[in-house]
Write a structure and sequence with these properties.
It contains 6 helices and 12 strands. The chain is of the alpha+beta class. The protein has one domain: CNF1/YfiH-like putative cysteine hydrolases, CATH 3.60.140. β9 and β10 form a beta hairpin. The longest helix has 15 residues.
Length: 245
């Protein structure tokens, strides 16, 4: 496995495996250099296929990850029977060897598991998905006591780089008064937004006591991460979770 890929630092059960890739260790070139896992961003199909093969080999995955067609919503699917890419922004499974995967390049990937290691999930939590309740919907789909759930927040745009307008702030604070803490006013109608704080608040409010991760910034760590906000056309990283056989 490439040295700068991220292994979540959280007390998940031994049978739960998870990793978040960086932009490094692939074959793509130009704005997609080098480990672009997104087949929808304009990169050469053969490069994406080779990058995905390298990912499988490096992690010794039992099968191909289930790639979602993410639409910034709150739909959650059980991936066990999924045959093709489906439009959704979170996936969960209780079956060993099924790999839940989120692709991102600024949006927040969130991994979830229960302490028994019997169910795992991955959610794509950009501002739209978070406002739509994707984290709460994922927890509901997991169907385990929320106090038994562990959460890990993967690489996303950091609070010093994520500038948003009033419409984003309004959407994320509606019915969530504590979310005000996640916004810092920088000029009229413009705010810095802390996705990590927002996700942690929502998870804890939903009953998840233990939230780990955060502290990355895809926008400023140019050598390590793709960033759509920084570069526009770019690749996608993958954040994966599965139950080992």
């Amino acid at each position: 496995m490439h040295a700068d890929w991220i292994i979540p630092d959280w007390p998940a059960p031994a049978r739960v495996r998870a990793v978040s890739t960086t932009r490094n260790a692939g074959v793509s070139s130009g704005v997609y250099a080098s480990l672009n896992l997104g087949a929808h961003v304009g990169d050469a199909a053969e490069s994406v296929a080779e990058n995905r093969r390298r990912l499988r080999d490096a992690l010794k995955l039992p099968r191909e990850p289930r790639w979602l067609r993410q639409i910034h919503g709150n739909r959650v699917i059980k991936i066990d029977d999924m045959q093709i890419e489906q439009e959704c922004d979170a996936a969960y499974t209780s079956d060993a060897g099924q790999i839940c995967t989120i692709m991102a390049a600024d949006c927040l990937p969130v991994l979830l598991c229960n302490r028994k290691g019997t169910v795992v999930a991955a959610a794509h939590a950009g501002w739209r998905g978070m406002a739509a309740g994707v984290l709460e919907a994922t927890l509901a789909a997991m169907a385990v006591p929320t106090e038994s759930v562990l959460a890990w927040l993967g690489p996303a745009i950091g609070p010093d780089a994520y500038e948003v307008g009033e419409e984003v702030r309004s959407a994320l604070t509606r019915g969530q008064p504590q979310a005000d803490q996640a916004f810092e006013s920088i000029r009229d109608g413009k705010w810095l937004c802390d996705l990590y704080l927002l996700a942690g608040q929502r998870l804890r409010q939903a009953g998840v006591p233990h939230v780990y991760g955060g502290g990355f910034c895809t926008h400023t760590e140019r050598a390590r991460f793709f960033s759509y906000r920084r570069d526009g056309e770019c690749g996608r990283m993958g954040t994966l979770i599965w139950i080992a056989d």
